[in-house]
Specification:
Blueprint lengths: L5 E5 L2 H12 L3 E4 L5 E6 L2 E7 H7 L17 E5 L3 H10 L3 E9 L2 E7 L5 E5 L1
Parallel strand pairs: 1-4, 5-8
Antiparallel strand pairs: 2-3, 3-4, 6-7, 7-8
Pfam families: Glyoxalase (PF00903)
InterPro entries: Glyas_Bleomycin-R_OHBP_Dase, Glyas_Fos-R_dOase_dom, VOC_core
Protein name: Glyoxalase
Length: about 120
């Protein structure tokens, strides 16, 4: 078995991809013609975003939508960064909600933000 990717369901795929580019300089690897599905390129690993209507066309069960104004879902993306202060500042300027400013935790420099679609993101230096 091989891990392929993680898909996060969002309200607006193109807006979400643009946020990740503005906040973290992560390029879009793929975006379909109708803007309902797109992928980010993390040097080989993929994180994808799909619109809620596309997700609902694949299965009929309901799910809890990630919403920036609701409690966060129980997972986080962890990104290694070279300069945690700069990465934190850029993310917040791009629209991320600051949750925990850069500080030392568990022997590492960590910071937390919440992306525009509601995903928790840990920045690790």
């Amino acid at each position: 078995m091989d891990y392929l990717k993680t898909v996060i369901y969002v309200d607006n795929v193109e807006e979400t991809l643009d946020f990740y580019f503005q906040a973290f300089a992560i390029n879009t690897a793929q975006l379909d013609e109708d803007g309902q599905y797109g992928e980010l390129d993390f040097q080989g690993a993929r994180i994808a975003f799909a619109s809620h209507p596309l997700a609902q066309s694949h299965f009929k069960q309901s799910y809890i939508r990630a919403q920036p104004k609701q409690p966060a879902l129980g997972f986080e993306l962890v990104l290694h960064v070279e300069d945690i202060n700069l990465a934190f500042t850029k993310a917040v300027e791009a629209g991320a909600e600051p949750l925990s400013a850069p500080n030392e935790m568990e022997g590492k420099n960590l910071a937390y933000v919440r992306s525009i679609e509601g995903t928790l993101i840990a920045l690790c230096e």
